[in-house]
Amino acid sequence: MATASPARSRAMNLDEHLPVDHRLSQVYRVGAGLMGLVLVAFGILGLLGHVGFFSLHGERVAGLSSNGALSVLSIVIGALLFVGMVIGRNFASTLNMVLGVLFVLSGFVNLAVLDTKVNFLAFRMPNVLFSFVFGLVLMTFGMYGRVHSNLPHDNPYWRQRNPDQAAREEAARQAAAAQRQQVRRRPAGPTSLRPQQ
């Protein structure tokens, strides 16, 4: 029976080292929630315009072009981001990164089909620019505290990638704490009594 590689095992155990209330988890949750709210609001406003589902011309919504298909797709992706916000932790981080990459790719794909008969999402140039910016912001939220060459050593992702050094630093911290506690518990020496005059 095949066993998981050490790298894969570390990746699977990463959630165990990132508590639900960890500040990184909060960043991932806030990012997913805010970006999901933007998409859901955009989708609802688009549906209120009663535009055809695959209308190539669309209708202007908050400065962007939208049709029924884009509105529904925006609501679905926004709801998925809300799920990431609820779950948080590594799931929210990965979801933010994956969707961010997809938004950037969507910008390139829809740029190629502008003013053609296959522009089923009624994209215009502002939509393309929005897709690029939205994707980059979403990727930034997902990569925060994970992708950096100089992560602090108390960062759970750094500790997972450098287990030996993390173990040495943890042992040194525990030894220093034990030494401080031993000094505090050490009884005071006998005090010299000065004779009263």
From TrEMBL:
Pfam families: DUF4383
Keyword annotations: Membrane, Transmembrane, Transmembrane helix
Sequence segments annotated as region (Disordered): 155-197
Membrane-spanning parts: 32-56, 68-87, 94-113, 125-144
Protein name, UniProt field: DUF4383 domain-containing protein
UniProt organism field: Streptantibioticus ferralitis
